[in-house]
């Protein structure tokens, strides 16, 4: 398994959570050490260094919030990842994306795009698949790319549709190079947009 922390790869959410907590601990330990050193050196807490240490805690507190958010999600089941890898063929798959909106977060274990189709799988029992698909469709449309988005919650249904997509030629969609993404193909832009709108 690739240990590099890259969005869209298997294991990203678990590695991201661990890294967020490590960063939070480091960012909070520095002002605490400064505070303790000043207290020992001056023999009192009532000095300007105390104020500096308190203000210095703000970035660490912000990182704690990020770590708590990251702790809400976990990486997908390894057995399912192996099944997806076996079925995907040449299709590039993005893993472990959490799409955010003002109302909800939509965790999607894996998502693939080909032609005008975007197919995703989520193991989250609380996920409203229709709302998640509508949100992703709207985000892509705002980026000027109209796609048919479907989120599936049943493993076998997803794997069957993924196998069908990998065996058939995707719909040829007219495409002119996008000035915002020079050198990118349409599929690369869709994948970039999907990652850009997720945690």
Task: Tell me the strand order in the biggest sheet.
Answer: 1-2-3-4
> How many distinct domains?
2
Order of helices and strands: HHHEEEHEHH
Anisotropy-based shape = elongated
Number of helices: 6
**What is the overall pLDDT average?**
88
| Multimer state | single chain
Low-confidence stretches: none
User: How far apart, in Å, are the first and last alpha carbons?
Assistant: 21 Å
Give the amount of beta strand, in percent. 5-15%
Radius of gyration: 22 Å
Largest beta sheet, briefly? 4 strands, mixed
Structural class: alpha+beta
Q: What's the total number of strands?
A: 4
Quick recap:
The chain is of the alpha+beta class and 199 residues long. The chain has helices at 12-42, 48-71, 78-87, 129-142, 155-167, 186-196, and strands at 93-100, 105-114, 117-121, 148-152. The chain is elongated, with a radius of gyration of 22 Å.
């Amino acid at each position: 398994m690739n240990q590099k922390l890259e969005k869209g790869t298997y294991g990203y959410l678990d590695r991201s959570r661990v890294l967020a907590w490590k960063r939070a601990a480091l960012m909070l330990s520095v002002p605490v050490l400064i505070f303790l050193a000043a207290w020992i050196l001056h023999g009192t807490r009532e000095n300007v260094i105390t104020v500096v240490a308190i203000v210095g805690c703000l970035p660490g507190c912000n990182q704690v919030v990020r770590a708590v958010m990251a702790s809400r999600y976990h990486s997908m089941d390894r057995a399912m990842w192996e099944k997806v890898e076996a079925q995907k063929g040449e299709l590039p798959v993005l893993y472990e994306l959490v799409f955010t909106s003002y109302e909800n977060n939509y965790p999607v274990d894996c998502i693939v795009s080909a032609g005008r189709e975007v197919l995703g799988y989520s193991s989250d029992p609380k996920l409203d698949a229709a709302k998640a698909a509508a949100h992703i469709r709207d985000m892509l449309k705002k980026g000027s790319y109209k796609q048919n988005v479907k989120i599936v919650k049943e493993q076998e249904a997803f794997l069957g549709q993924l196998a069908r997509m990998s065996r058939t030629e995707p719909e040829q969609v007219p495409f002119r190079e996008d000035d915002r993404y020079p050198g990118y193909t349409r599929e690369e832009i869709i994948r970039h947009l999907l990652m850009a709108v997720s945690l």
